[in-house]
Amino acid sequence: MDSFNSPTTKPLYRGTQIVWYIIGFLEVLMGFRFILKLLGANPDAGFTNFIYAVTYPLVAPFLNVFRISRVEGSVFEWTTLLAMLVYFLVAWGIIKLFLMSKSVSTPEAAVKLEDQER
């Protein structure tokens, strides 16, 4: 059976799209957080407050990993960058797990195994 015509191909593709969409959305939110902190945005402003509140649960596990660098109202929040990296790597790992369940033919498997040995 050709792996491109497998009945699992479309659901796997959709699953990977969903994971990438979710991580992309979270990365954008955390990117806003990083930029707002870096530029010293007013935390009492509605948008800033919203972004900080929504992203706090995402960055909270990383808050004490690094010291916060402050320069005259600006904050370089290393922990947000760490959170972004960790969540990206988790999403990448989930995608790899999805792809491992994709059906492959014996010749495809043989080629992939040879490639891994190099």
Automatic annotation (TrEMBL):
One of its GO terms (cellular component) is membrane. It comes from the Bacteria. The keyword Transmembrane helix applies. The chain crosses the membrane at residues 18-35, 47-66, 78-99. Keywords: Membrane, Transmembrane, Transmembrane helix. This is YggT family protein. It comes from Candidatus Nomurabacteria bacterium RIFCSPHIGHO2_01_FULL_42_15.
